[in-house]
């Protein structure tokens, strides 16, 4: 059984964690949107691991535009949902799926030569850590405490009482 010594501290910590992760996603999305030359071709083409052929397929002429725009839109969506505190669970799920794709494209397996990564990792890298943060945010949502969701919840309560 988990004992929480101070629920307010936990809530505040989770809000900050949600905001920091949201900022990271939004920043990455905005930077990619404002750079007309940005493409995921290099990252996808250098993919390794068991799903390499899937990521190589995504670099085809028919798919790369969809992959690039899908990535940008997903990053901005996750960033906005987590920063604004609305549709937080949807944002956490999309974020976890996106990070899983990043991880699977370049898994931190010790038997693979690491390409396009920061540092040297054994199984766990920053994408996997942030993916787990999204899982925690999904399970411990904080938008009712700090976020736009509070206003929608109050409307629902007022509507139900009338």
From TrEMBL:
Membrane topology, as annotated, equals:
Multi-pass membrane protein
* Entry keyword annotation includes Methyltransferase: no
Q: Matching Pfam families, A to Z?
A: DoxX
| GO CC, one annotated term | membrane
Kindly report the protein's main subcellular placement as a broad class.
membrane
Task: Provide this UniProt record's keywords sorted from A to Z.
Answer: Membrane, Transmembrane, Transmembrane helix
Q: Which InterPro entries match?
A: DoxX (IPR032808)
Q: Give the residue spans that cross the bilayer.
A: 9-27, 74-102, 122-140
**Subcellular location, record wording:** Membrane
Write down what this protein is called: DoxX family membrane protein
Q: Which organism is it from?
A: Maribacter luteus
